[in-house]
Design brief:
The complex is a heterodimer of chains A (71) and B (139).
Chain A: E1 6-8, H1 10-16, H2 22-29, H3 33-40, H4 48-57, E2 66-68
Antiparallel strand pairs in A: 1-2
Helix pairs in contact in A: 2-3
Chain B: H1 3-29, H2 37-65, H3 67-71, H4 76-103, H5 109-138
The chains are: A mainly alpha (71), B mainly alpha (139).
């Protein structure tokens, strides 16, 4: 399966949030650190619920974190 | 590496080595590759015990090295990977069991049928573990 056509700015947002670690973010949204790493690398597209949870952690709207890159 | 990927590797290795040993011993002990069912059962019980012990001890060792990961429940990605792997393995199992059933008509007898079904289960389980590992590697 190809990579999901969704990019994200989680790495930047983590940096701006005081260099929040992947583990901290993972704990706050209820997934494993490896899942956050996979999302950051664009290898895994999170569920809508997880995407909203991530956006809420950074106080951003969904489109402020995730960007559709497909056609 | 995710905790569940390590468990998948462990299961893959344990099943491949012990089941491989089972089928090699079976063919060596057999009469023209078709051993009596009694021999199969003895080897089968030993194989299941070895797989269970190796997997249990290995899983405990992995959990002790990663207690935090081991205590965390499966998240949405873990469940997605497991679901896709199980779906893929199911189709493999279905086809192989049908092929095993065909052996009953090839004069291989009950032993051949049972070992064919066992091989189908083993291969399907190997496919499931392999697909889980692939799922984690891919994302």
């Amino acid at each position: 399966m190809a990579r999901p056509p969704i990019s994200n700015s989680i790495r930047t947002l983590r940096f701006l949030a005081g260099e929040m670690t992947q583990a901290e973010l993972a704990e706050r949204i209820g997934v494993t650190r490896q899942t956050i790493a996979a999302i950051e690398q664009g290898k895994y597209a999170p569920s809508l619920e997880a995407a909203f949870r991530i956006a809420r952690v950074f106080g951003k709207p969904l489109e402020g974190v995730f960007v559709w890159q497909g056609d | 590496m995710p905790f569940r990927e390590k468990i998948a590797w462990l299961s893959l290795m344990a099943i491949a080595v012990t089941s491989g040993g089972y089928f090699i011993l079976l063919l060596r002990a057999g009469n023209g590759g078709v051993p009596p069912v009694q021999v199969n059962l003895g080897l089968l019980v030993a194989t299941v015990i070895v797989i269970t012990l190796v997997t249990m001890i290995g899983a405990i060792a992995i959990a002790l090295m990663n207690p935090k990961d081991a205590n965390a429940g499966a998240d949405e990605r873990d469940r997605s990977v497991a679901r896709r792997a199980a779906a893929g393995a199911y189709h493999v199992l279905l086809v192989l069991v049908m092929l095993a059933a065909v052996t009953a008509h090839l004069g291989l007898g009950l032993g051949g049928l049972l070992n064919g079904i066992l091989a189908a289960i083993v291969i399907a389980e190997l496919v499931r573990c392999g697909l889980e590992i692939h799922g984690y590697r891919r994302g």
